[in-house]
Each structure stands twice: as C-alpha cells, then as structure tokens.
Amino acid sequence: MVKYIVKRLLLSVFIMFGVSFIIYFIIRLMPMDYIDTAFAPQLNNGTLKPEDLQRIKEQYGLADSSFLGIINGYFGWLGNFLRGDMGISFKYGDKVEDIILENIGISFGISFVSLIFELIIAIPLGVKCAVNQYGKLDYTATVVCMTLTAFPTFFLGNLFIKWFAEDLGWFPVYGLQSPNMPVTASGFQIFGDMLWHLVLPMIVLVMLNVGSYMRYQRTNTLEVLSADYIRTARAKGLSEGKVVYKHVFRNTMIPLVTVMASTLPMLFGGAMITETVFGIPGIGKITYDALSVGDIPLAMGYNMFIAILTVIGILLSDIMYAVVDPRVKLGK
Question: Is residue 47 part of a domain?
C-alpha cells in the first residue's frame, strides 16, 4: 500500500506539471488582457505612456506573447508557485491563496449539503428501480432523472428564479442576504436569511446531479442481484427484504464509496455556473468573474487547486476501493 501511494504521488508530480503548463498556455491565449483593459483610460488620456505599460507587463511576465515568451512566463509563475506564492489577483488585488480560502467555505457548504440530499434520494431510488426493473417506477424515475440531468445549469437555474422567486415570490432572487435586512438583525436571523437564499441553488444542484447517482446505484444493484450468492440466499428461503437490504445493498456500497472519494474536487471547487446564476459569492463565481477579465494569477491558482484536489481524489478512490473490498490488491 505504502509503495503504491509513493509511486502514485511521484507520478502525480509529472501530471501536475503537464496540467499546469496546458492551463497556463490556454489562459495566455485567451483574447482578454486585464492589464490592457485596466490601464486603457490612462493610456488614452496620456497619463500613461506605452513604454510604461510595457514595463508593467514585464513585471508580470506578460510582455511577450510569443511561444517562447509564454514558456518564460510559465516558468516564472512555476518558480513562484513552488515557493508557495500564487501571486496577486489582478481583479481583486489580494493574494490568490487568501481569496481561495476566504470564498471556499460557502461553496463547500452548498456542494456538501447538496451531495447529502442527492445520495439520500438516489441510493434508495436506484435500489428500488433495480428491484423493480422495467416496472413503472423504473421507467418513470429513469426518464425524469435523465431529463433533469440533460438540462443546462443556467437554464434550470433561471427557470427556477422565474417561477419560484419572481412569479411566486417564495424565494429571494440573488445573493446571500436580503437588501431589507435590518441593521439590528441578530446572528440567527442573518444565518436563517442566508440559508433561505441557498434553498433554490441547492435544489437546482440536487436535481441536476441526482440522476447520475441514481443510475449508478441502479446499475450496481442489478449486477449484484444477478450474482450467484444472491440466488443462494433466495434458495435458503430468506425474505426479499433481507436479500435486498442485507446482502445486495451492502455490496453495492463498494463501488459507490470509490465514487464518493472522487467527488473531492466538486465539494471544494464550487459550482461555477450555479453560483454565477444565483449571484452567490463562492469560489466558483469569484473565479468566473476573474476569468472573464483575464485575471491570470487567480485563474492559475484556482485551476491548480482543483487539479491537486482531483489527483488526491483519484488516489483516495483507489485506496478506498482496496479498503472496502479486501479482494482488491493494489498493483505493484
């Protein structure tokens, strides 16, 4: 196990190097340039000369847009990153690591609570659909879940805002706090108001993602139901309830556990589109706003953060599979 983990970590170093270079190269090729946009008024009114703008770009390693210039800029960024310096965000003017840490909490909270509800709905529904394969429930649940999964996030989010926030007025439309919240409001009132703002975004996330977990659980359950030991259990006279919930359900958890380990990037990475639609100041929306103006330091810092979480999630997934299933031996 230890040898396997060490090998995977060493391999991850090369993966991270490749990922970081590809991300940096793509971001540098994006059409927007934050420095040109930010200093355009000073350049137009003559308070800033073109050579001064060039010196500013040189400080950030962005003066040369050629292939060799991008390579030099990447290694400059990489050297700072390896020293623990992700740089200063162009848009927000703060350290990238501080921005990520300050805004990751709300994103994690939304994603984690949504994941809990997704599993609470998907796991029993998937088992029930598998036990009643090709029945009315199976067909109905499959069609509904797959239809919801196919909806674009921005479409379903705006649809819910139109129906439940604007037309019915049941939920707030935007942000995390009501504009009419009194200054003298207690901490409990503020917290309750924030939770009420998060109801619609979490419903959207649950509806979009529950279908994939349901189908995964249904497929796993069908595989276990066809196993020889399940037929043996039935032949011994065990009730269908005991067969399903004692033998089948327990064994379907093995692959599901590995999937849960790989959700780590999703939990901490934020739901970028959902946060943007509902105006939630999580790390997803913060990064989207930064990307839209060419904020290279924050875009790189966020993407590397997600890449690291992805590598850790995959490693945890492999380890958890070996832990929950003793038959699995990690390769040498």
Answer: yes
CA distance 112 to 104: 12
Q: What is the DSSP string of 69-82?
A: HHHHHHHHHHHHHH
Q: 126 with 173, same domain?
A: yes
In whole angstroms, give the CA distance from residue 307 to residue 19: 8
Please write the tens of the pLDDT for every residue from 257-311: 767 767 777 777 767 888 888 888 888 889 888 888 888 899 899 988 888 888 8
> What are the phi and psi torsion angles at 182 (to 5°)?
-65, 150
Does the residue 285 lie in any domain? yes
Residue 15 domain boundaries? 2-82
- Last residue within a domain, chosen from 27, 52, 82: 82
Query: Is the separation of the CB atoms in 34 and 293 below 8 Å?
Result: yes
Whether 142 and 281 map to the same domain: the answer is yes
Model pLDDT for residues 132-191, shown as the tens digit of each residue: 888 899 999 989 988 888 888 888 889 999 999 888 888 888 888 877 777 777 778 888
Same domain, 203 and 164: yes
Mark 163-194 as b/e (b = at least 16 C-beta within 10 Å). ebbeeeeebbeeebeeeeeeeeeeeeeeeebb
**Bridge partner residues of 95 (DSSP):** 88
Determine the Cα angle at 33 with ends 87 and 43, to 5°: 105
Q: What are the structure tokens assigned to 49, written together?
A: 């000369």
pTM (whole model) above 0.85: no
Q: Are residues 181 and 56 in the same domain?
A: no
Q: How many domains does the chain have?
A: 2
